[in-house]
Write a sequence for this structure.
């Protein structure tokens, strides 16, 4: 089912809220309006004050008057910023709706400024505007902008690249698991420091850790890297299938693979077992938010026995999600895009046990008697891999648990 | 372009949303790109509203720009009218829609809906949130308040009822608006004045139509209701109050002003009003140590002006800085600052404000959520008096700022962050205690270290580096010119006045061309400045 209408989603600028923590010496400068600055501070809450690593160059009347002027203003803003913060190694100029509409060419600005500030700072650009990107697509655009910067490698032994920002602890667990299979040259994109960009070339095989990385994958393929198709590493089953896809691509001996994964997989299943009692048979409704909905629905239904009422996603990349779609229960209702008022009519009519939705809808739906799980938390919590499978299920069980505790 | 890390106000359409969300039976159709719905979270999360704001966004995307966004706007408007059946609608653009120039007002007229549709012209690249709220409220009042006929003063004069007023200005997402309205309604009731319409908060279009029935208007928040109140005066001859009842003195002045506007019909209030505890608390001897504490005040104009008066006349503090981000009220603010021998800080750049605070070396900051973080960075006590605020300043408990109960709330919340009297004395007496020392937080605020002022500064937009120096100065490392004995002596001064002592001593040495600061210089300066 495809829907058009009012969409209650974030724009791609919100990706900055976690990306600036992942790449510690990068700075994100949004070129936009007061609305963009307001969004950033509403989304980033209290973090804005602890030595922020992002800011907004707020466009004013005079910037809208003529383009040359806007470029000069931008150069001045960047020069001031870099003077103040000599520790910045990489600067992202992030496009917004206003800068896209007036066609301010940030890629040219980035090239011009890179010449001026090389070699101390690399300056890149990408768009996080609402007219082009939804929520997590901001990360996709950011990583796609990084790909041309990656060093070139030609005649190296095949290497594995994991793409998508993961919690540090999750990244370390995956590195250990791959090492146990004998793959010890595994790299991650994005890196933790701007200077540690992984190399890429025709021998690179990459595995997507997140389902929303269409552009980044395309950019990597353009550099000769090959995509390894796999479901996403959510839950015990998803993690095993994801790791197995890489193991097979690199010719890891099946016995060796089992030896590396058997114990943590059993641990993950043990952690999931007690949560099945509270989630089995529960009817779950997903509003579109981050593109994580389909992998999450697959995990909740197959590993915890939940029933899927409707699985909404802002955008469906059929090729990247082919393995996931094959695992979904027969007859699952999928919706791509959104007309929020009609979707709300459907959720009220279905009265599911758990509604997964954004914070703009969560409290109003709670007040109508529906139990909700706010979806943004799934981006700000370590949920991938074996050791987090129980934590992920607990995120969905918690609102139900709370319902039964409260007596007033 | 203005390099902005923190903005004191949102864009003007957020002000329009605050008015629409405050009201009943009004729906706002906003021409805006996908993603601008983030603003819903301000209402559903920060203010914890249990309903979605009555706002429908067109949420156009890039692929719509090639087509007819005007048609999309009209279809959205018609669908919203059909679904929500409001009594009146607002239409307008966000900052991006302003660039594509679709003219929501004209498009709405063409759809010919059977209800009033009010077009909002909110210039996003010049104006901000409070201006947007004021303009929206003014346009709503202009359109819906009815005609002046039959609403002349004469009709109101020969009546057989208590004086009647409207309360103007409270909105959604307002700082303590919920409880201020309750407190002032109660106070007016006690002095014999009835409240007709409260608007925009809780008002429906029918209520706006009744605004003209009141004898006069009470303007609680001039930033939002000032323009509408002036129009009501011109159109219906209704006078409006100009005193904002924050603090005991201002509340008394407000009662007197209401008395004048109500034509003397106000009950003699003595003995009927529950008085405030603030005057006695402030006169009791344990408040002695508050005398002359240096306080820096910043916020929206109304709250900052009120706080300046309360801080000086009712707490006995000394004002060492005053400012606002409300440029519309710059003149009033400058006049008020001048009375205290200060130059007002009129800025919406928080880095400027940070520089001014570092410069003034206050012992207490009364400001917004933003100043809370500046104060934390500088290791200064802080209380919040004005928006922007975060979720903790939309509390569950009754916490007005206005009226006599509001004064009680001010007393508790402003004194709380300060080190308590006995502790302050003992810190001045004994410097080397293992538990109670400069580095520790005031002990009634729980365990933990005081945040040491960081010499590192955030991104600075302006070329002014005075903030950096000032902050670095407030921090430990001592500049050239200080003898080691003098430096050691300086450290014996309690931290909350040390910054000031240090600046005074350095200024004293500079004026006299002294090459080195000795212990003698320190005490000479102390004697000089205490004259």
């Amino acid at each position: 089912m495809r829907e058009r209408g009012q969409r209650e989603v974030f724009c791609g600028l919100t990706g900055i809220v976690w990306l600036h923590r992942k790449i510690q010496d990068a700075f994100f400068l949004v070129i936009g309006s007061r609305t963009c600055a307001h969004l950033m501070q509403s989304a980033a809450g209290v973090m804005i004050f602890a030595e922020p690593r992002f800011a907004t160059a707020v466009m004013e009347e005079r910037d809208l008057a003529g383009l040359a002027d806007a470029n000069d203003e931008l150069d001045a803003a960047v020069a001031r910023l870099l003077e103040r913060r000599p520790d910045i190694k990489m600067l992202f100029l992030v496009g917004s709706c206003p800068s896209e509409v007036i066609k301010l060419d940030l890629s040219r600005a980035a090239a011009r400024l890179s010449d001026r500030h090389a070699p101390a700072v690399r300056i890149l650009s990408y768009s996080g505007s609402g007219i082009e990107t939804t929520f997590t697509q901001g990360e996709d655009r950011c990583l796609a902008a990084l790909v041309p910067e990656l060093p070139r490698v030609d005649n190296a032994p095949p290497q594995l690249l994991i793409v998508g920002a993961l919690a540090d602890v999750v990244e370390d667990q995956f590195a250990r698991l791959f090492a146990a299979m004998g793959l010890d040259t595994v790299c991650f994109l994005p890196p933790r420091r701007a200077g540690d960009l992984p190399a890429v070339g025709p021998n690179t095989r990459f595995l997507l850790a997140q389902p929303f990385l269409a552009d980044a994958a395309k950019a990597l393929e353009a550099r000769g890297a090959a995509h390894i198709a796999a479901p996403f590493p959510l839950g015990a089953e998803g993690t095993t299938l994801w790791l197995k896809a890489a193991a097979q691509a690199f010719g890891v001996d099946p016995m060796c693979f089992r030896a590396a994964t058997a114990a943590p997989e059993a641990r993950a299943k043990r952690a999931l077992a007690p949560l099945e009692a509270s989630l089995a048979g529960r009817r779950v409704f997903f509003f579109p938010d981050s593109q994580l909905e389909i992998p999450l629905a697959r995990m909740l239904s197959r590993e915890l026995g939940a029933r899927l009422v409707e699985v909404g996603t802002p955008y469906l990349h059929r090729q990247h999600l082919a393995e996931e779609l094959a695992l979904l229960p027969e007859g699952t209702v999928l919706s791509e895009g959104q007309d929020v008022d009609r979707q709300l009519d459907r959720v009220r009519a279905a009265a599911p046990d758990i509604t997964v939705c954004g914070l703009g809808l969560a409290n109003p739906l709670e007040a109508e008697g529906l139990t909700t799980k706010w979806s943004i938390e799934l981006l700000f919590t370590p949920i991938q891999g074996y050791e987090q499978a129980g934590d992920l299920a607990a995120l969905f069980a918690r609102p139900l648990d709370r319902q039964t505790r409260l007596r007033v | 372009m203005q390099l902005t890390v923190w903005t004191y106000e949102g864009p003007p359409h957020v002000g329009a949303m605050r008015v629409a969300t405050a009201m009943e039976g009004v729906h706002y159709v906003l021409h805006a790109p996908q993603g601008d719905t983030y603003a819903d979270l301000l209402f559903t999360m920060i203010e914890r509203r249990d309903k979605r704001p009555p706002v429908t966004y067109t949420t156009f995307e890039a692929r719509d720009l090639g087509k007819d966004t005007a048609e999309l706007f009209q279809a959205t408007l018609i669908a919203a009218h059909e679904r929500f059946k409001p009594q009146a609608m607002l239409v307008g653009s966000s900052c991006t829609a302003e660039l594509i120039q679709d003219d929501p007002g004209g498009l709405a007229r063409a759809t010919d809906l059977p209800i009033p549709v009010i077009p909002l012209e909110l210039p996003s690249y010049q104006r901000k949130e409070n201006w947007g709220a004021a303009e929206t409220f003014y346009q709503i009042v202009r359109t819906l308040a009815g005609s002046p006929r039959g609403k002349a003063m004469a009709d109101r004069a020969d009546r057989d009822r208590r004086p009647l007023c409207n309360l103007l200005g409270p909105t959604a997402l307002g700082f303590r608006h919920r409880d201020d309205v309750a407190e002032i309604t109660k106070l007016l009731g006690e002095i014999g004045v009835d409240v007709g319409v409260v608007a925009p908060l809780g008002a429906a279009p029918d209520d706006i139509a009744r605004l003209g029935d009141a004898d006069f208007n009470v303007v609680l928040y001039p930033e939002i209701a000032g323009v509408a109140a002036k129009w009501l005066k011109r159109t219906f001859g209704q006078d409006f109050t100009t005193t904002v009842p924050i603090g005991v003195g201002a509340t008394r002045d407000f009662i007197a002003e209401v008395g004048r506007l109500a034509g003397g019909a106000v009950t003699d209030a003595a003995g009927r009003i529950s008085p405030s505890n603030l005057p006695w608390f402030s006169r009791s001897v344990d408040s002695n140590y508050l005398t002359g504490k240096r306080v820096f005040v910043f916020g929206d104009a109304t709250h900052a002006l009120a706080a300046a008066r309360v801080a000086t006349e009712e707490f006995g503090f000394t004002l060492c800085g005053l400012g606002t981000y409300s440029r519309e009220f710059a003149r009033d603010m400058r006049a008020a600052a001048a009375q205290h021998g200060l130059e007002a800080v009129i800025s919406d750049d928080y880095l400027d404000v940070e520089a001014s605070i570092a410069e003034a070396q206050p012992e207490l900051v009364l400001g917004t959520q933003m100043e809370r973080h500046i104060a934390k960075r500088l290791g200064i006590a802080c209380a919040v008096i004005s928006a922007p605020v975060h979720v903790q300043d939309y509390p569950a408990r009754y916490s007005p700022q206005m009226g006599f109960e509001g004064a009680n709330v001010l007393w508790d919340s402003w004194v709380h962050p300060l080190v308590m009297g006995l502790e302050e004395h003992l810190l001045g007496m004994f410097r080397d205690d293992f538990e109670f020392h400069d580095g520790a937080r005031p002990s009634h605020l729980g365990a933990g270290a005081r945040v040491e002022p960081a010499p590192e500064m955030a991104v600075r937009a302006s070329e002014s580096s005075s903030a950096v120096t000032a902050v670095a100065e407030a921090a430990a490392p001592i500049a050239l010119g200080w003898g080691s004995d003098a430096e050691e002596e300086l450290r014996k001064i309690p931290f909350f006045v040390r910054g000031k002592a240090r600046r005074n001593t350095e200024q004293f040495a500079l004026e006299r061309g002294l090459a080195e600061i000795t212990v003698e210089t320190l005490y000479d300066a102390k004697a000089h400045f205490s004259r």
